[in-house]
Write a structure and sequence with these properties.
Radius of gyration: 31 Å
Number of helices: 2
Shape: rod-shaped
Helix content: 25-40%
Number of strands: 3
Largest sheet: 3 strands, antiparallel
Strand content: 5-15%
Length: 106
């Protein structure tokens, strides 16, 4: 269950209460009887270790670099022998091309 901070609007007493998300906190201050209001506080979550966000970001950055390198080589940049200059097929054209070459091989 999470902890919530409550502040008295009359005397300023600040208390920490543990209750469910749907539960109600204290309505009256135990010191002066004033109204209690839920305070905004920082979350108590601490991420330790290398971190999943850093690892995911590194993977997506690496994938983007690989795609850029592949696109550069397929467009003819960086190749002197003319490799990768054949037009690429996508979608149903690639399936049709693969199907005709498989039939020709039989």
């Amino acid at each position: 269950m999470p902890f919530y901070d409550y502040v008295c609007t009359k005397c300023g007493l600040r208390i920490e209460v543990m209750h469910s998300v749907h539960g109600n906190g204290p309505s009256a201050c135990s010191a002066c009887g004033g109204a209690m209001k839920k305070a905004v506080s920082a979350p108590a979550v601490h991420f330790k270790g290398k971190g999943w966000a850093r690892q995911d970001r590194a993977i997506t950055t690496q994938v983007a670099k690989e795609r850029a390198a592949k696109a550069a080589t397929s467009s003819g940049e960086g190749t002197s022998s003319g490799e990768g200059t054949a037009p690429s097929t996508t979608g149903t054209d690639a399936i049709a091309a693969a199907g005709t070459t498989a039939k020709d091989a039989d």
